[in-house]
Amino acid sequence: xxxxxxxxxxxxxxxxxxxxxxxxxxxxxxxxxxxxxxxxxxxxxxxxxxxxxxxxxxxxxxxxxxxxxxxxxxxxxxxxxxxxxxxxxxxxxxxxxxxxxxxxxxxxxxxxxxxxxxxxxxxxxxxxxxxxxxxxxxxxxxxxxxxxxxxxxxxxxxxxxxxxxxxxxxxxxxxxxxxxxxxxxxxxxxxxxxxxxxxxxxxxxxxxxxxxxxxxxxxxxxxxxxxxxxxxxxxxxxxxxxxxxxxxxxxxxxxxxxxxxxxxxxxxxxxxxxxxxxxxxxxxxxxxxxxxxxxxxxxxxxxxxxxxxxxxxxxxxxxxxxxxxxxxxxxxxxxxxxxxxxxxxxxxxxxxxxxxxxxxxxxxxxxxxxxx
Length: 372
Description:
Blueprint: H1 2-11, E1 15-19, H2 21-28, H3 44-49, E2 54-60, H4 68-85, E3 90-92, H5 96-104, E4 108-115, H6 124-132, E5 135-139, H7 152-157, H8 168-180, E6 183-185, H9 191-200, E7 206-207, H10 224-232, E8 236-239, H11 250-260, H12 262-270, H13 275-285, H14 287-291, H15 297-311, E9 316-318, H16 339-347, H17 352-371
Helix pairs in contact: 1-16, 2-4, 6-8, 12-13
């Protein structure tokens, strides 16, 4: 079996559709062509070790960011600078043809994504500009809503929302993305927005980093009818490694952990640290405490299998969320651990053909459908 899973992992095209290393770069100076072991989940050398063939680099900002468009451009500039320094290791892929060219040259195919539609600043020309820079999917909202789409967080927790879903301009955004061949990512959007998107889109949509609500009832996860609707559109759901979207007990345990270290946490926030930076600092400092309430490795496989059992083998993939989460599932400590997923799928009895679909083939189908 050892030889089999390694052989499958090596031969498959492994595509991870969600990694936030660019946020680590702009906020903490962790540039991904450096050796970042012990500091981040990812870097160029470790992607190679983990057998990653295609990595989506996500440009992110929260809803409070001033001039989010320009902040996004800064992240793209960091990305471009790394690629110029390491042309023999990594190359921008703008489409499936360039993706395969990169793989044939034994380089990491780097693709770009935008997490949060607020970064286009309600301007279709800025959407076009992102596409020209290489961005090939956009997550329509982050946790914050924008002027044209409501988020899962807001639809769930804000009781005073007057309007939910897509506005007319939001429908124009979907139409323009379809025309460009930019994939519509439904991770983070609310249910009202989700159903509006499915009516508006003429191309298959996908979830870049979301899990099954039935196993972990978090608003960021997808309910059965949503998973079925994505499958009916020939889309795909890319499973997230974050403990909070895998284990329904995670947030209760996390709250208790933060309360135990409240003085340190409050001090970090008062210094102006972003909430996610403060949490990451505490999680790294008190690793042994955190180990106790991280989601199990088996929970990742359970979410993959749940989607397969619900809609079939053709509609699930991997969207780790590495470097955007403070707590991945146990054993999945960084990007070198992807072979554990392949090993587990072999042990579950999945065929080489089907494992190859999960690792990247399913997403590649959706990418090509959006390009057509």
